[in-house]
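Researcher: We plan to redesign the surface later, but first we want a full-length starting point. C-alpha cells attached.
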C-alpha cells in the first residue's frame, strides 16, 4: 500500500473517538482541505475497532456522492490495512470484514425532504453525514435519531454556508452543549495539496464563495450572486467544429422562459445561442407546443444529445418527449447549483458567448436577498436558472452523455 500521510488536523479526526465524553465530531472549513478523507477512514476504523455485527449509515446528498466522496477515498486505505471489502451495489450496502469482525454499512442519499423516509425504522451504531449543510434538517435529525446503539457516535463534514443556516446554529454554535468536537479545516491541512494547487483554488472563487470555500467562514451572501462576471469581456463563439450539443431550459408560462444552446469544444462548454420569451412583456402566453417549436428552432438541425429541463415543468417535459427529445429533469438545488456555476465560470469550464444578451443582462441583476438566509431574489433569474441546470447536469455525469440518445432535428 502506498504510504498515506496525515496532517496534524487529520490525525485529530483519526483519534478523537478514543477520548471519553464526546458523542459527535464536526469537520467543516475550506474545500479540498482533506476533512472528508480523514473522516471517512476514521469512521470505518472506529466501527471495526468498537463493534461486531452492527449496522452503520453513510450519507451524502446523493448515493453517488457517498460512493465518490466516502467509499472511493477510504477503500484503498482499508484494503491496504487488510480489511476485506464487499459492496452490494443493488442494495446500497458495504460489508466490511477484518480482525475477526464484520459490520454492515448502509448508503443513503439525503438530498431532499423526502429522503428521511429512506432511513426511518433502522437502528444504527453510528452514522457519517458528508455535506451535512446540503441536506434538509428533517433528514439529518432522522439520521441522528437512528443512532441508538450503546457507544454510537455521529460524524459530520460540510463546507460553510450562511450564518443563519440551521446546521450552523444548531450544531456548530452548540457543539459543546451537544458534546461534539468541532474542527475547522484549511487547505493547508491537506498534505496532498501543493501550494500551486491551493493558489489555483483561491483564484476559482470570489466574494462570498471565496470566504466560504477558501477561508472556511460561515458568512452571509450579499450583493450580486456572480459579482465577478464581466459582460464587456464576453467574446463571440469560437470558430471550428463543436463535438457535442446540449440545451438547458427554464420553463415559464406567465414568467419568462429561457433556453440555452451549449456546444462543447476542447473540453469547454460554450453557451453559443439562447431563446428568451417574456409572456408579460409580449402580452401573450405560449403553449407547450409553441415552446417545443422554439426549442427545435434553437437547435437548428444540430444533434442535441440531451435537453435539461426545469423539473417542475411536467407538461413541457412530456411534450418534448412526445416529439422524440431525450429529456433529463434538472437538479434544482439552488445554493449548491450557484456554487458550482460560479466555479465553472471562474475555471473556464463554461463560457457565455457574446450574443447571449438575456444571460448577460441577468448576470448584472441577479442578487442575494438581504435577510442572511442564503436566498436569491426571485427576479431576473430565468437564464440564471437554465445555466445552473446545465452545470448541475454536467457535474452529475462528468459531462458524459453515456445515458443520452442523440436526436437530429431536420
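Model: Full-length starting sequence:
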Amino acid at each position: 500500500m502506498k504510504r498515506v500521510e496525515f496532517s496534524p488536523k487529520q490525525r485529530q479526526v483519526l483519534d478523537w473517538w478514543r477520548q471519553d465524553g464526546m458523542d459527535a465530531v464536526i469537520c467543516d472549513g475550506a474545500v479540498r482541505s482533506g476533512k472528508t478523507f480523514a473522516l471517512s477512514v476514521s469512521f470505518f476504523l472506529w466501527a471495526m475497532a468498537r463493534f461486531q455485527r452492527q449496522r452503520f449509515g453513510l450519507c451524502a446528498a446523493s448515493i453517488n456522492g457517498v460512493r465518490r466522496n466516502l467509499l472511493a477515498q477510504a477503500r484503498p486505505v482499508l484494503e491496504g490495512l487488510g480489511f476485506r471489502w464487499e459492496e452490494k451495489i443493488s442494495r446500497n450496502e458495504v460489508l466490511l470484514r477484518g480482525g475477526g469482525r464484520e459490520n454492515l454499512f448502509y448508503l443513503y442519499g439525503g438530498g431532499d425532504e423526502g429522503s428521511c423516509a429512506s432511513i426511518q425504522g433502522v437502528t444504527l451504531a453510528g452514522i457519517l453525514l458528508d455535506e451535512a449543510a446540503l441536506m434538509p434538517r428533517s433528514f439529518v435529525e432522522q439520521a441522528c435519531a437512528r443512532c441508538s446503539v450503546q457507544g454510537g457516535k455521529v460524524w459530520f463534514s460540510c463546507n460553510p454556508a450562511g450564518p443563519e443556516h440551521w446546521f450552523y446554529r444548531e450544531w456548530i454554535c452548540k457543539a459543546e452543549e451537544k458534546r461534539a468536537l468541532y474542527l475547522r479545516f484549511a487547505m493547508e491541512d491537506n498534505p496532498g495539496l501543493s501550494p500551486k494547487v491551493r493558489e489555483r483554488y483561491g483564484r476559482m472563487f470570489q466574494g462570498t464563495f471565496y470566504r466560504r470555500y477558501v477561508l472556511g467562514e460561515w458568512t452571509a451572501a450579499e450583493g450580486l450572486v456572480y459579482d465577478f462576471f464581466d459582460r464587456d469581456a464576453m467574446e463571440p463563439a469560437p470558430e471550428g467544429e463543436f463535438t457535442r450539443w446540449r440545451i438547458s431550459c427554464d420553463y415559464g408560462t406567465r414568467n419568462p422562459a429561457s433556453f440555452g444552446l451549449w456546444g462543447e469544444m476542447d473540453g469547454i462548454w460554450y453557451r453559443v445561442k439562447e431563446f428568451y420569451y417574456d409572456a408579460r412583456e409580449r402580452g401573450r402566453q405560449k403553449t407547450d407546443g409553441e415552446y417545443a417549436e422554439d426549442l427545435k428552432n434553437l437547435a437548428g438541425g444540430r444533434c442535441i444529445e440531451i435537453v435539461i429541463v426545469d423539473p417542475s415543468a411536467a407538461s413541457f417535459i412530456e411534450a418534448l418527449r412526445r416529439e422524440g427529445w431525450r429529456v433529463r429533469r434538472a437538479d434544482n438545488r439552488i445554493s449548491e447549483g450557484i456554487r458550482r456555476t460560479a466555479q465553472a465560470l471562474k475555471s473556464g469550464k463554461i463560457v457565455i458567448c457574446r450574443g447571449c444578451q438575456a444571460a448577460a443582462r441577468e448576470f448584472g441583476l441577479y442578487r442575494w436577498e438581504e435577510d442572511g438566509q442564503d436566498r436569491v431574489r426571485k427576479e431576473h433569474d430565468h437564464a440564471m436558472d437554465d445555466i445552473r441546470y446545465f452545470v448541475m447536469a454536467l457535474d452529475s455525469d462528468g459531462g458524459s452523455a453515456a445515458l443520452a440518445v442523440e436526436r437530429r432535428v431536420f
